[in-house]
Amino acid sequence: MLFKKRLAIFFVAILMLYQIWYAEDFGTIPMLLQVLAIFIVAITVWINGGKILISKKIIAWFLFGLFSLVSGFVIVTNKEVLLSSIITYLSFLVLCLAIYNLCVSFGSTKWLTDIVLIANMVCALSVILFGEAYNNGIQVKTMGPLNNPNYLGISMLYGIFACLVRMDPKNWKETVFHYLIIGIFTYVIILSGSRSSLIGIVILLLTYMLLGIDVNHIRTRFNVRHIIYFITLVIAGCFIISYIVTDFINTAAFERLLLLTREGGTSGRTNLYDIALELFISSPFIGIGYNNFATVSGMGYFSHSVYAETLACTGIIGCILWFAPYFTCANELIKLRKSGFEKNNRWIALFVLIVFMGLFGITYYVLQSMVMFTVLFSQIDLEHKNICGNLK
Hints:
Elements: H1 2-26, H2 32-47, H3 56-75, H4 79-106, H5 110-130, E1 132-135, E2 139-142, H6 149-166, H7 172-192, H8 195-211, H9 215-221, H10 224-246, H11 252-259, H12 267-282, H13 293-297, H14 306-338, H15 344-357, H16 367-388
Antiparallel strand pairs: 1-2
């Protein structure tokens, strides 16, 4: 079993490193993703003795893919592009199902968040040491011309979350070390000029910290360790303020943030939402076809929001199928928190982050985003198993 487990982790690590770093920096290798996916699925079936566990949440997303395929063939004129898009989506989903099974079989998601942390650390170092200029209206810095700044920013946010998973508040040295890594990820986001990701950092860390506060524990157990934490945070805060005053105002990220306060700073996004709403009204029940926004709208690119894209492309039925797991997750996280789920705050923070970043990206077009949702599904089901003795 140990050999099978190590083999599975090895192939998942190669897949994530390839998808998160290599493909974004150097370009894709034909068929490598598919080959790795086949190996991972085969090993998963091997580990589970030929059985596959299927989460109800992932079933909803399979139905979303099936509906998108059937409705798309009725609406979309370019069937080849539709079929290619659906095959990619279903490939991502099969991988996520395999990863879900591995997490349940191993009884942990930590191995996967460790892989996400390492892969994104490679990305961060690649940007800092070998990054190239990227013209995004304003000159920013990414891994290279293939690496979109917003995608890079989202990757760094997932890296920050992975740090939170590893962080042990009882070990102040380890906590400081992980906050230093979070600082590196934050610096890369600043270099990328991604405004949405900068806001995402605040949302992620605030949710994590506020939900992690235990007032009764502070009252009864306030000790030297808490004083060290407080002093560390004060020092870090002073460095951040100093950086903002002296250096941050000269960065591309700050310049892009200023665009939000200028006329037209958000008009591009608003225009995309308006177009998405018009397309939804034209076909409210089944939409205009999966991944067809760029073509029908005449914009040449997608809507940059999972909410706008799903509403316009798959209509009401598609929205119900895709977003049903969101509501299920929210409900289960609330129940787990009431039952005393330890470290629940970081998983709620991940959920809040994914929901927020959906305003700026499309989850089912990006493998890493789907994998992070799968991590959340797996953790919820594992905690439910620990409490109730069975999976959801």
